[in-house]
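Table 4 source record.
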Amino acid sequence: MFGLGSHEKNRTCGVVIDIGSGSVGAAIVISDREEPKPEIIWSKREFVLIKNIDSTEVPLKEITTSLVNIFLQLGSDGMKALATTDKSLSIEKVQVTISSPWTYTVTKTINFTDEHPFIVDDEFIKELSNTAQKQAFTAVIENKVFQESQLGIIDNKTVGISINGYPVASPKNIKTREVSLAHITAITQNKILKVLEDSKNKLIPKATLSTHSFLYMFYDVLKHMNPDTAEACLVDVTSESTEIGIIRDGTLTHVTHLAFGTFSIAREIAALAKIPNNEAYTYLKGGLSSVETKLSAPKAEELTTILESYEDKVAELFKITGDSLAIPKTIFLHTELATEAFFTKHISAAATKATSMHHNIHPITSILFENSQQKDTALLLSAHYFHREHVAMNI
């Protein structure tokens, strides 16, 4: 009896949901504190149609529809898979990550100095965090995309504290003259949050719900998988967005994005080659040699222009790092496994355009999860975050 109860306490089951710019994915995850990795027993991803976009309202409606459909599949196929795997387990938590452009992640660093030594305590850290949050809201209000939107906070936390220039894990009751606090605030569309809450309550009302920006979760997982990485650039390419994050001294210090991604490129190639959008998307996954054979010499030059234009857009993102330094030489790239080769080439070219230097590109799926049977990298990252959070809880 005692052994059984202890085993059950070490295991938990949850659902991780990834809301990308043009798709929604979900997986049922079992986390065992005694195991190094989580177990994914069921997963599903639904993509929206690749359409020409005139405003964010259309894709937002399609994303929320896909979210509802994912919950319906979770309630049927997902629950059957859980019952087949372990009837004693039930879903205790729903963990959600939301990518740009639906989420706007703001990082702020607050520096405080005084010629007289002072004590750093919980109240002092709270005051600095509140200051960072207010500055983040000011940045959001100034963003045109979100000015007319109803927004909700999904992440609001301190991600790093330095005292006299040195990172400190627990800065309580330390006397100093200088403190630096890094804080992130992530804000998303209330419409997405409402659909999430309603869908969860209908299917698994007793489960708790937590929501994060994808880039914060990406950063957190990489930080714990590679704790010695002090500086890096994170790149997340989704259907309709390319988002970057800058890590300095082990802390996420800057986040920005471009509303242009995989589907965006596919639409331009489709228009050029006069082929369906989905066919152009297939060529991105398999290599562009097939589509190049369909083009005349002038059209082939236009294709090169399209790809170079994307590189130029990303290069401009790379030039805005939140400080005076160039982007780090180490770049971690997250995209679909099938498009990793394509984006590794063009993200590398964009980085060189921005800095005139060579950069090391590390595709997440093929490097960090090469032995995994699950190839949906966003869900893999989410599952690892879920597992780490569970392991970190007090037993």
